[in-house]
Amino acid sequence: MGVPKRRQSHSRSTKRAAEWRKIDKPGLVECPQCHELKLAHRACQACGFYKGKSVM
Asked: Which whole-number Å values give the CA distances from 53 to 9, 17, 46, 49, in the listed order?
């Protein structure tokens, strides 16, 4: 198994750590019941439906 010969610099490791923050905003979809925008794969905050069933 390969082992690094030298320690990585602070700037290099922080650049790598900060890369995940550049992910796009979560996708908003239209609720099929009330047609409000909601997060995908989550219950609608406006009407409380998820996959055609009332869950809230």
From this structure: 52, 40, 14, 5
Q: H helices within 1-56, ranges in order?
A: 10-18
Helix (H, G, I), strand (E, B) or coil at 41: coil
Residue pLDDT, tens place only, 9-37: 999 888 887 777 766 777 899 999 999 99
CB proximity list for 28: less than 8 A, separation 6 or greater: 37, 38, 39, 40
Q: Which residue ranges make up each domain of the chain? A: 27-56
The whole-number pLDDT of residue 27 equals 83
Separation of alpha carbons 56 and 53, rounded Å: 9
